[in-house]
Design goal:
The protein is mostly beta strands. The chain is about 10% helix and about 30% strand.
Amino acid sequence: MAKPAKTSLKPADGETVELERLQPVERTAPAISGKGMIDRVTVALTVQLGRTDISVKDLRLLRQGQIVVLDQIIGEPLTIFANGHLLAYGEVVATAKDQYGIRVTALLEEHEPAEEDAA
């Protein structure tokens, strides 16, 4: 195999750094399938029921049994986030195992502006 060609890089301090150019590698073993690898990555899915702002004083006075009123109105879609990024909207459902679930009612389109700071 031929020796890889080099290229020079001059950082701000003026010193020259030699970098080898990347060359195609002969395949002796199968490459890792990117799709299979990416499919195993976990994503934190979060559903936001609502939000509110309260003062530190009110937070300190909070006691068990008190109700905190959220800005979410009954019937409005809940927001669904994937790793903190707005992904979709949905509604709460009860599952057969006596747990809550979320029914996705709308996916965020790529061209729609995401409300990132809502997370």
